[in-house]
Amino acid sequence: MKSDMEITDSGAHNEAALPRPFYRRALPLLLLAAAVCLAVLIVRGIQSRVHAESSLARATEENAILMVRTGHPKLGAPSEELVLPGNMEAFTDAPIYARTNGYVRRWFVDIGAHVKARQLLAEIETPEVDQQLGQARAQFATAQADYKLAKSTAERWQNLRKTDSVSQQETDEKVGDMESKSATMEASRANVRRLEETQSFQKIYAPFSGVITARNVDIGDLINAGSNGTGSDLFRLEAIRQMRVYIQVPQLNSRSAVPGMPAELAIPEMPGKRFAGHVVRTSDAMDPASRTLRVEVDVDNPDEVLMPSEYVEVHLKVSTPTNSLIVPVNALLFRSEGISAAVVRADHVVLQPIIIGRDFGDELEVTSGLAPDDQIVINPPDSIAAGQKVRLAPAGAQQ
User: Fold this and answer.
1) Of 43, 161, 187, 334, which cross-links 171 as Cys (Cβ 3.0–4.6 Å)?
2) pLDDT, tens digit, for every residue of 147-161?
3) How far is residue 355's CA from residue 288's CA, in Å, rounded to a whole number?
4) If we measure between CA atoms, which residue out of 315, 369, 255, 349 comes closest to residue 67?
5) CA 372 to CA 73: how far, in whole Å?
C-alpha cells in the first residue's frame, strides 16, 4: 500500500493535468471586444457631434446670406398707344369788334346761332360820324369849286403868256395855285371816302361761317371802337365744322409725331366713341420746361358734335425704342446717387444704374442700363449693398 503522502501528491498532479474551464480562456477576448466596441461608440459619438456642429455652422452661414426673389425684365412692345390730354379748339375763332363809335341800334343773332359768311349781325347808330361825313362832303365840294376856278385861271394865263401879255412869273403862280387846289381837292375826296368807310362799319357782318358763342352787347349800349381806350368785342364767332387740338408729346416719342400720322380722339362723356383725326403740324422745337413737343391734331366735325374748349384724350400709335425693357416698380432702388436696380451676378449683387423712360403705374420703362437676361432682385431691401452675397429663393417662392 502506498502511503498517504504519495496518494496526495498523485491527486494534486492529476488535478493540474486536467484542462481549465472555457470561460476562463475567453474572458480576455471578451474584455478586448468590449473595449473595442466602447472605443468605436465613443469615436462615433464624437464624429456625430462634430458633424452636427459643422452642419449647424454651415446652416447658420447659409441662413445669414440674404435670400432674394429675382425676375427678368420684359421686352418693350415695338409700338404702343400713347394717350395725351388736350383741349378742343375751333379751327377758326375770332372776336367781332366795332370799327366805329356809336350806340347799338339792333342785334340780329344770339349765342348758339349758326351764321353764314357776310351775314348781318348788328347795326350801330353813329350820329357823330354822319355829321362828320356831311361836313367832309361840303368841304370836298368847296375844294372842287376852288380847283375848277384855279384851273380855268391857269389856262387863261397860259394862253396870254403865248402873246407875251403876262409875265412868266405870273403864269407860274397861277399854275402853282391850280396844282395846290387840286391837291386840296384830292385830300377832301380822301377824307370823304374815309368817313364813308367808317359809316359803313355801322353794320357788323360775320367774317366767316360759324356759330356765335358769345354776345356782349344789347340795344343802346355805347360802342367804343378803341379811339379812347381798349374796345370790347361785340360777338365771338367760331367755326366748328373742323376742330383742332394741341397736345404736348414727350421727347421720347417726339420722333414718331410727324404730319399725316393718324390719331383718335375720345371724350370721357361719350365712352366707346372715337373721332378720327390726324397730325397736321408740329412746333419743331422742344419746350425747355417740360421737354415736350407741341403738336396740332385736326379732326372733322361735320355734325358739330365736338365743342370748343372741351377736354379730350388723343390716342396716338407711336413706336418705342427697340432696346427698351419693362420692369416692376418694386425692383428699383431710389437713392441719392440715382436710380439703380440690384442685379444678381453669380452669387453676389451688382447695383446697376439705369435710365427711366415712361411710367406705366406699377411698371416702368428702362431705356438704358439693363439687359433682357439680367436677373433683377424683386423688392430688394433698402440695406442691400453692392458685392453682397445672396442666394436665390426656390422657384416656387419666386412666383
Assistant:
1) 161
2) 999 999 999 888 888
3) 20
4) 349
5) 6
Vertex 263: Cα angle to 257 and 267 (nearest 5): 130
d(CA 185, CA 164): 31
Helix (H) or strand (E) segment spanning residue 246: strand 235-250
Enter the C-alpha cell of residue 161. 403868256
Amino acid at 193: R
SS3 of residue 256 by DSSP: helix
Distances (CA, A) of 23 to 29, 33, 37: 10, 15, 20
The grid cell for 93 is: 375763332
- The C-alpha cell at 56 is 449647424
**Helix residue spans in the chain (DSSP H):** 4-17, 22-64, 127-162, 168-200
Is the overall model pTM greater than 0.70, yes or no?
A: no
Inter-CA distances, 136 with 129, 148, 188, 199, Å:
10, 18, 7, 13
Q: Measured on CA atoms in the order 206, 208, 209, 211, is the torsion positive or negative? A: negative
- Tell me the per-residue pLDDT of 261-275, one tens digit each, with 9 for 90 and over: 999 999 988 988 999
Crossing angle between the packed helical segments 127-162 and 168-200, to the nearest 10 degrees: 160
d(CA 35, CA 170): 167
Low-confidence residues of the chain: pLDDT under 70? 1-25, 50-64, 77-79, 226-231, 320-323, 395-399
| Tens digits of residue pLDDT in 109-139 | 999 999 999 999 999 998 888 899 999 999 9
How far apart CA 120 and CA 216 sit, in angstroms, is 16
The rounded distance, in Å, linking the Cα atoms of 243 and 241 is: 7
Domains and their CATH numbers in the chain = 67-74+323-398 (2.40.420.20), 98-223 (no CATH), 241-319 (2.40.30.170)
> Above pLDDT 90, what percent of the chain?
41
Mean of per-residue pLDDT scores for the chain: 84
Give just the sign of the alpha carbon dihedral 179, 185, 189, 191. Answer: positive
The C-alpha torsion from 204 through 207 and 209 to 213, rounded to 10°, is: -60
C-alpha span between 75 and 365 (Å, rounded): 9
- What is the distance between the alpha carbons of residues 296 and 91, in angstroms, rounded to a whole number? 11
CA distances, 167 to each of 158, 159, 181, 340 (Å): 10, 11, 22, 104
